[in-house]
């Protein structure tokens, strides 16, 4: 019998993006105290990389206006990476003052998306944060770069694979430690994953390549399986399935951490994450948002526990 996952890794690293990517576009203001508690619950769950906040302009992203306060107060466990988004020199100045040791920068594979999202061309964006990366690396920081719209763009449609490879090569040349290649609007299918990851194989070492899937069209798990078969071992997810691209109509958010952890553990692939403690973090932030979460695994497991509790009381 042929094993379709014969090349899958024994362990996967998850970058939890809920506190930043998950919350940044939420209309309900979340207090700094609640953000700190949410981050600490995710640390309790064992997430190896936690994207805690974003040092962007408070006018541009009001939900992240308290980044300095939040980052200073979250618990920093040894051996865990606490990542923040730093799009420019001003953001890096703030991050350094707050004690940050790991930063993320971002651009796009699509020129149209780069112009709409950050009002720069791809080349201009890379040039803008080249100095950020240089300063951060000189200070001994860990640097991650995100490439959005690698599988499709809401403005230009298809994105050439060559454009994805080109921007990834430029980012690696700057000295970033890891790349996160994103299906920003949730249009990717497994054959695209094979094509893009295959094209990147000669440029990006597998231990430095992460993928960021959205479940807008219900393909995040299928895309993850395709990536696992190709040996990808780093994935971005958001607890409860929070987040989503504001430019994607009907977007249901990032791939849910609970969904991926449930599937991987059932497949015998380790993550180091405690699913029950992860659900506690999602349960907490769900209460603050006041609405159901998108994660299928979270919803199903919560319902099963509630049913078991009712039976125990009745019995």
From TrEMBL:
Keyword field: Lyase, Metal-binding
Pfam family, one: HMGL-like
Entry GO MF terms: hydroxymethylglutaryl-CoA lyase activity; metal ion binding
Signal in keyword set: no
Domain Pyruvate carboxyltransferase: 12-279
Keyword Disulfide bond: no
Gene Ontology biological process terms in this record: ketone body biosynthetic process; L-leucine catabolic process
Family under the similarity heading: Belongs to the HMG-CoA lyase family.
Descriptive protein name: Hydroxymethylglutaryl-CoA lyase
Origin species: Vulcanimicrobium alpinum
Gene: hmgL
């Amino acid at each position: 019998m042929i094993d379709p996952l014969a090349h899958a890794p024994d362990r996967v690293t998850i970058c939890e993006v809920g506190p930043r990517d998950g919350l940044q576009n939420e209309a309900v203001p979340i207090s700094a105290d609640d953000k700190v508690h949410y981050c600490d619950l995710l640390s309790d769950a064992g997430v190896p990389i936690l994207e805690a906040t974003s040092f962007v302009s408070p006018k541009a992203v009001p939900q992240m206006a308290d980044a300095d306060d939040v980052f200073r107060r979250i618990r920093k466990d040894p051996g865990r990476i606490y990542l923040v988004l730093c799009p420019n020199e001003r953001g890096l100045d703030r991050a350094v003052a707050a004690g940050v040791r790991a930063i993320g920068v971002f651009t796009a594979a699509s020129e149209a998306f780069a112009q709409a999202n950050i009002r720069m061309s791809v080349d201009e964006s890379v040039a803008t944060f080249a100095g950020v990366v240089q300063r951060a690396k000189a200070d001994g920081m860990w640097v991650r770069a995100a490439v959005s719209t690698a599988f499709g763009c809401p403005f230009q449609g298809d994105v050439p694979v060559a454009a994805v490879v080109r921007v990834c090569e430029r980012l690696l040349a700057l000295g970033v430690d890891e790349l996160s290649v994103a299906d920003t609007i949730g249009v990717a299918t497994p054959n695209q994953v094979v094509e893009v990851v295959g094209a990147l194989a000669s440029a990006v070492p597998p231990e430095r390549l992460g993928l960021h899937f959205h479940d807008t069209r219900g393909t995040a798990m299928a895309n993850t399986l395709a990536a696992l078969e190709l040996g990808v071992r780093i994935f971005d997810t958001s607890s409860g399935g929070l987040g989503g691209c504001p430019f994607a109509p009907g977007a249901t958010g990032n791939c849910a951490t609970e969904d991926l952890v449930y599937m991987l553990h059932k497949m015998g692939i380790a993550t180091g994450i405690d699913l029950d403690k992860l659900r506690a973090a999602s349960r907490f932030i769900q209460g603050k948002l006041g609405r159901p979460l998108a994660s299928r695994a979270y919803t199903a497991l919560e319902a099963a526990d509630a049913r078991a509790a009712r039976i125990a009381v009745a019995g």
